[in-house]
Design a protein that fits this description.
Number of strands: 7
Shape: elongated
Radius of gyration: 30 Å
Number of helices: 3
Distance between the termini: 112 Å
CATH superfamily of the largest domain: Ribosomal protein S16
Structural class: alpha+beta
Strand order of the largest sheet: 6-5-4-3-7
CATH topology of the largest domain: S16 Ribosomal Protein, Chain: A
Helix content: 25-40%
Number of domains: 2
Length: 167
């Protein structure tokens, strides 16, 4: 039975095209907590909380999905060029050991650098890439300095011959 409202027919029953706001739950991951980073911060000023989430399938976007905060991470260097990390190792060991929580790759890197786990291979790759980038920047700076010195010598040589006119 259809009801006419304006120019549209509306069925008397709830149609298939009305979707409920539900999240897809993958049975493979359902029930296994995960440890990851939750972004708390402002524009151009990120700040992360290391949190335990109830399930990877449920998402990480809302504060209501956080079971426990087990640490913090400030990715921007401070005045001493340090990136600050604070972790509660006791609670991390509980969630990893007793509750078999899945750990995200960024948190694995932090735990490797902190000494709780072996250093993650991605940390080595990132360090190698950073070293190559720094070497490239140094080579460019040396080349620019040599070019500037060469131009300065040419200017002084041409300036010395043009100013020494006999009268």
């Amino acid at each position: 039975m259809k009801k006419m409202v304006g120019d549209f027919f509306i069925p008397a029953y709830e149609p298939n095209w009305v979707f409920e706001m539900r999240k897809l739950v993958i049975p493979k991951y359902y029930g296994r907590p995960s440890i990851g980073l939750a972004l708390f911060g402002c524009t151009n000023r990120p700040f992360y909380h290391v949190c335990v989430f109830p399930d990877r399938a449920l998402g990480r976007r809302f504060e209501g999905n956080i079971l426990e905060q087990v640490g913090t991470f400030d990715p921007l260097p401070n005045q001493k060029n340090e990136k600050l990390v604070a972790l509660n190792f006791g609670r991390l060991k509980y969630w990893i050991g007793e509750r078999n929580a899945h750990i995200s790759v960024p948190v694995l890197e932090l735990l490797g650098l902190s000494g709780l786990f072996p250093i993650h291979p991605k940390s080595f790759i990132r360090a190698k890439d950073n070293r190559a980038l720094i070497e490239d920047q140094q080579l460019k700076a040396v080349a620019e300095a040599a070019e500037a010195e060469k131009l300065a010598q040419e200017e002084t040589a041409s300036g010395a011959t043009s100013t020494s006119h006999p009268q």
